[in-house]
Specification:
By secondary structure, the chain is an alpha+beta fold. The chain contains one helix and five strands, in the order βββαββ. The protein has a domain of 49 residues. It has a five-stranded mixed beta sheet, covered by helices on one side. The longest helix is centred in the middle third of the chain and has 13 residues.
């Protein structure tokens, strides 16, 4: 998986815009690219889009998922 380099400080943003799409940070900092890639595969199996970003030697995952169906329930 390709990573997007970042010049951000060690305290990462909770969200980023990549190619005009908003991604949310999963809250974890991975020490290795391999660890982040393993978690990325888990997210992909749950139908998330995933972007890996390297920040100060740590790897972060930003995810997004497009809502395809909205279920509305009436209050009872």
């Amino acid at each position: 998986m390709a990573t997007a380099p970042s010049q951000q400080p060690v305290n990462p943003n909770r969200s980023v815009n990549i190619d005009g799409r908003k991604f949310l940070w999963d809250g974890q900092m991975f020490a290795t690219c391999e660890d982040a890639a393993r978690q990325s595969e888990t997210y992909k199996k749950d139908n998330f889009e995933v972007q890996m970003v390297e920040v100060s030697g740590s790897y972060l995952l930003y995810t997004r998922r497009v809502v395809k169906e909205v279920v509305v329930t009436a209050p009872q």
